[in-house]
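Hi V.,

You were right to ask for the full record rather than a summary. Here it is.
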Amino acid sequence: MKRILVTGACGQIGSELVHELGKELGRANVLATDIKKPTPFIKKHSTYMYLNVLDDHMLAKAVVEYEIDTIFHMAAILSAVGEQDPLFAYRVNMDGLINVLEVARRKQVEKVIVPSSIAAFGPDAPKEATPNETPLNPTTMYGVTKVAGEKLLQYYHLKYGLDTRSLRYPGIISSETAPGGGTTDFAVDMYIHAVAHQPYTCFVKEDTPLPFMYMPDAINAIISLARADGRRLRRRVYNVHAMTLTPKDIVRAIQQYFPEFRCRYAPDYRQQIAESWPHSIDDTPAREEWGWQPHYDLDAMTRDMLKRLQEKLR
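Predicted structure:
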C-alpha cells in the first residue's frame, strides 16, 4: 500500500480514512476523490480530484496518472436515502463498484477494499451473534447492493486473482463528518443536539438494539484488513463488531455529562429497516485471521465524542 485512491472521500467514513492514510503515507500518496467540494480537513491530508465513480474513463485515468496500487471504494448511497430512490442507489452502488473492479483488473491495481454493511443481513438472519456465514436476504436496496457487491468481490478474486477485501460495518458514530443518510444516523445526531443544548427527536424506538462502532475503531478496522497478510485470510468478507446499543442507552450515556439532554421518539419508515438488522455480530473470523479488536466502549466513545464536538463549537 503505497499509492492510494479513495472514492467517496467526502463521506462520513471516507473523510476520516483519508485523514488517517494521509498521516501514515503522506499527502502526496493519497488521492481523495468525490463529486462534492472537499473540506479543509480532507485537503490537508490528501490530493483532491473531482471524480464520479460512474465514469470509468475518469477512474482509469486517475489510476494510471497517479500510479495507484490500492483502491478504497467508499462511494455509496446509504440505506435510508437509498429507499427514497432505489434505482439511483442501485446505479451508484452497483455500477460504481463494477467500474472500480474493472479498472483495477485492467490497470493491475494490487488491492481493492470495499466496505459492506450489516444491511446485507435480512430478518431471517440470527439476531444475536450473527455469524459471518449466514443467509443474506436484505430488505433494502442498499442491502441488496451490498450482498451483490460481496459476491462481485469474490468473483473478481476467484476469476482474476484480484486481491479484494471487505468488512461488514455496523452503525458508525463520528464527530467529524455529518452522517450521510443511514438508518443509524440518529446516534450521531443525539450527540450533536446534546452539545448544542437542544432536545432531539429520534426516528427509531428507544429499545431498538443495533450494532455500533466508533469511527476510530472503524478506520483501524479497514486499514488493518487492508494491511493484513493475505496468506492468513480465508474469506473475502468479514463481520466486525464493537458494541450493541439502543437509542435509550446512548441517551443515558450522554446524560451522564449533559443531564439536561432530552429525547423523544417518533419512529418512521427507518424503524422497519432497523428491525430487519441484527442486534449483535459474531466477528470471530476477523479476530482470528487478522487480529481485529475494538478499543472503544460506550462510555469511552461518549466522552471522546462530546469533547470533540465541544471543541468544534468553540
